[in-house]
Amino acid sequence: MRKNNTIFFEFFKLIIISLLLQPLFILNSKIKSSEDNSLFFDDFFLKNNQIDSTFYFSWNENSWDFVKQLQYHYTEFNKISTVLEKGWEDFWVNKIQTNFIYNNKNLLTEIITKEFVNDSWINNSKTIYEYNSYDDVIYEKYLKFFDNLWTETAANEFDYYNQKKSSVISKIFVDGLQILTEKINYYYSNFDSILSIDYFKWEDNVWHLYNREIYSYDSTFNLIFILKQKVISGNPIDDSKISISYENNKLKMIISQFFEEEKWINRGKTEYFYNPDNNLNVIINKYWDSDNWKNNIKITHIIDTFQLQYEQINQSWSDSNWVNSTRFLHYFKRFPTDIDNFPKKNSCSYFEVSPNPVHITSQIFIHYFLENNVNLSLELINTLGIKIADIYSGFKEAGEHTIQFTTNDNLPTGTYWIRLIKDGKEQIVKPIVILQ
Length: 436
Description:
Shape: globular
Number of domains: 2
Radius of gyration: 27 Å
Helix content: under 10%
Structural class: mainly beta
Mean pLDDT: 83
Oligomer: single chain
Number of helices: 1
């Protein structure tokens, strides 16, 4: 039986990415929304779902170990300007910096990556984009930094017809010379959906067609079928296919098959599951073996109650159990709503937690102001709103107060919340990152 074909995994990856980039939030009663997709809480708001940082973990000896983190910075027009990657070596160390440069139309023109070597940022690679008058990319060029010079390594040229991408020609640079490598042609329906894609390779100064993909859609223009064919001596021969199904207009299942000995044979299946709020919840990938579908990979998505964190857990199937593999935590950037960004100490919105982040078993100080005498509760809760510990419960007089407490040494690394409740009514929640 042949190995998995590249088309399935590439398509599978694109499907997952496209789903993850869809809005992940269902608003609850504590949040107000605005026309620019910002989400407003009592004392901060989320602007265009900007990600603040992403942490990567690997599963090791029954606990999650840090691997790396990404920190995101944005332009005034909400475009990513810099992504800083840090690796975990018992402490965070700089690894890679990626800078994004835009023109006066806010179109991406350059991506520059640098590596941190000997306490300095050293140029590594660069991608340059050029556009036509319709803001379509017509040229992208890849460069590497050698001997203090930027050296061209590869490039793609794009052509368009009726503002739709019609072809891409790829080439590489060897000793300053351009060498053609591949061409891709795109064909569309009257409804602008892709009908087929032809792949050519450059040999003997001629473009030779070697692969073709044919696309089919349902009545609502959902992609439901991809047929891949090898083209040998001008004759197309079925090679593999992908069947896609939907439920309530949401992606439900992808099945891949390959053609061998005059019949279609199952290869892989990916199923998509959603929570009651219609957010993507679980993705399960299976492979075909001995006339049965067998579990392979499981991806679980978790959105916390307060919608400031998005978590992804990847697991593999082993010995009839799902075993943790990798984990990703995405934290969304918070913007204070106070005019001066700092609530006054005589304001009911004054509620501060320090230090933050904090290491496990360290002292945490909570500072707050009460306008009136109240029965007060302070609780430590997780991202699902479940109480982890009681910090204080009792009567408090009006005025400014400070309470300190120590976290439980059994808490895993992650984001938690301090919840303040006055006379039985929840008033404010504050995030705190606790590190092992």
